[in-house]
Amino acid sequence: MRSILRYLILISGLALVAPLRADIVLAPLFRDGAILQRGKPVPVWGRAAPGEKVQVQFAGQSRETMADSSGRWTVSLAPLTESATPAELLVTGRNQLRVTGVLVGDVWLCSGQSNMNWQVQDAQNARQEIASADHPLIHYFGVTNEVTDTPQDDTPGTWQAAVPGAIGTFSAVGYYFARELQPHVGVPLGIIKATPGGSGIEAWLSSDGMEKDPNWTETLAHRRKALAEFPEKKIAYEKALAAWRAREATAKKNGTDFIEKKPSVPEGPKSRNAPAGLFNSSIHPLLPYAIRGFVWYQGEANASRYRAYADFFPSMISQWRRLFQQGDLPFLFVQLANFDLANDPTGQQWAFQREAQASALTLLDTGMAVAIDVGSAKTIHPLNKQEIGRRLSLLARSCAYGENLPDGESPRAIGFAVENGTIRVRFTRGAGLVVRGEGRVLDLQVASSDRKFHSAEAKVEGDNLLVSSPAVPNPKAVRYLWRNAPEATLFNAAGLPVAPFRSDNW
């Protein structure tokens, strides 16, 4: 009897101890083939049993710490020197983890919506690009796109080298950006992609940051209302969907066309635009991985709310910089390309959204790649991702790496002056302005105080553009490319388009 009792006590004791014992787990980006950021402290973190001693060894450094009461542990490696020689990151506690093939260089986080998510295999010259890809010093990590209600610590994914046959599913913009940039910086490049299609900017901020920012009060109130109404609306949606399917089946049986629109799914817990939903799943697991900067391609989903975007976008940039704890990291973004938005009766919604995007340039260390000439009126996804990646790489070289590239950024209008029936426009980088096509600047308009715009002509004079119209003898305002799908004809000497602009605030 006593032996049985001792056995039961032993078993119960093990049951208490077992849950306290846990293997060391590394944060998701610390996997084979990882690229660590050079030139700055490198946090390495993960989870273990509370109080467990953890040792991290890499590149001749050894750091020790203990997991806190929640099981989280973090060490910081001293700034690393770039290295293209694969090395091993060793983590030791009760168990031992070996992360192999680790390189040291620069890491860029590429995020946004479908145009950043667009894969190499779906972009221009896909077959040739996939067959010729051989860039072993470029490594790529794809983050999950699932919406979650709470911040996550882990995400599935692996590091892959950009070698023949492997890049088809890479972000086209991310890959072409890295391919153009890597030869100039001469170090390994890591590209982290966190970018589902159709996502609004509100999904990419932390809920904590949004609660503290008055710009988001209305958005959060709408979200709370939507969640409260979701159960009832879901029931109504399911009934409407069943009825719709019945009518569809009847039409099919009768051989008649069925063009009735399918009922829309109500906004609920897993909505792609749920505030903080994508931040929780795609950004939070990465914090505070050491990186070189951000590349962003998003805005399409928010175009109908362009006024708010001018506040939301800079707010997001500031929040991400704060959360990654590495100062004012360079933030590069793509301005929306030309696209004929069918459901916009004004024909100008995207013009105003482009302006809202450009508002972020008031922040330090930001750069905007103008894509107004590479799109198509008929598709929201420009296929020439190579050129977009190249323009982003030029911005990185000047903004992040300090190269002197006088023509590496699209000219932007910075000054307007009315002179004898003409409006003089000055640019940030106007040297070498070139008019393409028939030698005439298209999609250029002026207006008087009546606010009625008329087509105008222009003449290049040094770094300036002189704009006038016989229909407007006393011009007060000028606009260029101010519609959804304009035709860009004004470029700098390096072939980069002048960014859309307007002098008015009407």
Structural features, described:
This protein is α+β, with helices and mostly antiparallel strands. Among the domains are: 207-275, no CATH class; 413-502, no CATH class. 27% of the residues lie in helices and 25% in strands. It has helices at residues 2-17, 114-117, 126-132, 172-185, 207-211, 217-254, 277-283, 306-324, 349-358, 385-399, and strands at residues 25-26, 35-37, 42-47, 53-58, 61-66, 72-77, 83-92, 96-112, 135-142, 159-162, 189-194, 293-297, 331-335, 366-370, 413-419, 422-427, 434-435, 444-447, 453-455, 457-461, 464-468, 477-480, 490-491, 501-502. The strands form 5 sheets. Strands 2, 4, 5, 7, 8, 9, 10, 11, 12, 13 and 14 form an 11-stranded mixed beta sheet that branches. A 4-stranded antiparallel beta sheet has the order 15-16-21-20, with no helix packed on it. Helix 8 packs parallel to helix 9. The chain is globular, with a radius of gyration of 27 Å. The termini are far apart. 43% of the residues are buried. The model is unreliable at 1-20 (pLDDT under 50).
